[in-house]
Specification:
Family (chains A, B): Belongs to the FBPase class 1 family.
Radius of gyration of chain A: 19 Å
CATH architecture of the largest domain in chain A: 2-Layer Sandwich
Strand order of the largest sheet of chain A: 2-1-3-4-5-6-7-8
Keywords (chains A, B): Carbohydrate metabolism, Hydrolase, Magnesium, Metal-binding
CATH class of the largest domain in chain A: Alpha Beta
Strand content of chain A: 15-25%
Organism (chains A, B): Penicillium atrosanguineum
Shape of chain A: globular
Pathway (chains A, B): Carbohydrate biosynthesis; Calvin cycle
GO molecular function (chains A, B): fructose 1,6-bisphosphate 1-phosphatase activity; metal ion binding
Distance between the termini of chain A: 45 Å
Number of strands of chain A: 15
Oligomer: homodimer
Chain lengths: 323, 323
């Protein structure tokens, strides 16, 4: 795997990204997987009414593991996370060997709290930006890579790369255990072109269809056209399903009664980059605009999401926007 | 965990069940988890059009691990599996110490083939029957235990016990790694009583709603009443979600255009026992009858399934049967 990354990134002058940043993040995903595997009693929290301490502890353990990984990489100068949505220095500010590459990492350490207790697949979301901040930058140019960690029966990762001067890349990685090598499962993750053998849909926040005529029309379209339903309610596994199957559309609409909940910086931007690098699309259902078109003004911003196979995203856009 | 099982089963004269059968099955679940964790390239099969060799290899590895575990238990005299649906001797027929307890085990070694490639949670289903066969026996009396193995970020198991003379039991177990102890996560898994804080639904085969007026009415009921959708398409994780959250209803209807696919012996009976032991219900959507009421005539029989919270199963029954 390392030689493959080197062949992609070294010609683009991204030595730190391929020798330090991405390996540190993949090792960190391996560590989070181990921590989850050993946290049997954490699931108890999910069985109580409120979010209990145990569940918060799993999130915090993942947060700490990512922060430790970032601090090891001199080229990562800034970090912020969904658990603490403020940009601050990633290391101790005393890097011995300042590098010519400078990155900002924005991450959601453990996405899918609601499905941790029943032992469903959950994930980590990481976005890597050129420069010392993600704020007021053009996401489509400055977010140059993103990584998803997928914790299921196996531990896997998706890496998307869109480094200036290079072709967009999307890879699936098999994460090894402690001290083991990571391996490439697929070096070119691509959503399929039509005609589609099986069409999948993942309708988030389905109860909104009770108040939204357009969302209900969309659901009826999926049922009448015999789409296959797969919706686990975890953003990472729902997105990875589409990438691995080669088809899928994820729909999280926003209405007055149901405000946007997905964080632009920690969830939408990294997912959108992966979808685009895999040949798909990711748009804001409120405007139809590409998720990666509009810069961030504040780490806390939220929006809806429609993403996946480009042809399906176009259909959803037309129905939801009533166009 | 072992002392808890002993306290439940020894007074009922089930020494082999608690000292040999259940420990062997839990260790086997730990082995299957390890095998899945190390099978990174198996996922490739799911990405091809046909069911490839890799995927079949994972199923077969799990099948072999279960067969090996059963052969170690002198009290297990008969076994059959979804991969080979014929009852045959579980061991070599040469048990040195024949025991007074005699069991038949029916199992699905790895349920959820379609979601193995995207690294979603999958499971193992095992039913334990009193006597030398499951055929032409009353399931509600003769299937005395069932076990689900759940392979996600962690490895867990659900055990249901309904041994004559004892109270029904449902436990959640955290499965340890090789040589590690298994531990009780919850000693009393129970579906909640109304009022329900959050109501969950898992609609299998949703495309059938396009041809079935009753199924469509049911889906509309769920949406209008603001139920939360969780449907991953793996029977084990979908059932375990309801058990861990304390609420849920799983609906897999059968129509002329969409024949029954769930195996009565390998899927429906073990799931139904778990649901009943957790205070829920499991019925055949074609008749409204309890799944465990009707004996099996052939290992291959299939049916639909509605199961989960008793109040919800009653609502679904009325809508689907148009009563």
């Amino acid at each position: 795997m390392e030689s493959h990354l080197k062949s992609l990134l070294q010609p683009l002058g991204r030595t730190e990204l391929c020798d330090s940043v991405i390996p540190a993040l993949l090792d960190c995903i391996s560590e989070i997987a181990k921590s989850l595997r050993e946290s049997q009693h954490v699931s108890l929290a999910g069985t109580t009414n409120a979010f209990g301490d145990g569940q918060l502890n799993v999130d915090m353990a993942a947060e700490n593991l990512v922060r430790e990984a970032l601090a090891k990489c001199p080229s990562i100068v800034t970090a912020s996370s969904e658990e603490e949505p403020v940009e601050r220095a990633a290391g101790d500010g005393q890097a011995v060997n300042p590098t010519s590459e400078k990155y900002t990492v924005a991450f959601d350490p453990l996405d899918g709290s609601s499905i941790i207790a029943p032992n469903w697949t959950v994930g980590t979301i990481l976005g890597i930006w050129d420069g010392a901040s993600a704020i007021n930058q053009q996401p489509s140019e400055k977010q140059i890579a993103s990584v998803l960690g997928v914790y299921g029966p196996r531990t896997t990762a998706i890496i998307a790369l869109r480094v200036p001067g290079g072709e967009p890349q999307c890879l699936e990685i098999g994460i090894g255990g402690s001290g083991q090598e990571h391996q490439i499962i697929r070096s070119n993750v691509r959503l399929a072109d039509p005609p589609f053998k099986t069409r999948y849909f993942a309708p988030a926040n389905l109860r909104v269809a009770g108040q939204s005529e357009n969302y209900m029309r969309l659901i009826m379209h999926f049922i009448e056209k015999s789409y296959t339903l797969r919706y686990c309610g975890g953003l990472v596994p729902d997105i990875v399903h589409a990438l691995v199957k080669g088809h899928g559309v994820y729909v999280s609409p926003v209405t007055v009664a149901s405000p946007a909940k997905l964080r632009r910086l920690y969830e939408l931007f990294p997912i959108a980059l992966i979808m685009e690098c895999a040949g798909g699309k990711a748009i804001d259902p409120a405007t139809g605009e590409d998720i990666l078109n509009r810069p961030l003004e504040d780490c806390d911003e939220t929006a809806g999401l429609v993403c996946g196979t480009a042809e399906e995203v176009e259909i959803v856009k037309k129905v939801l926007l009533g166009a």
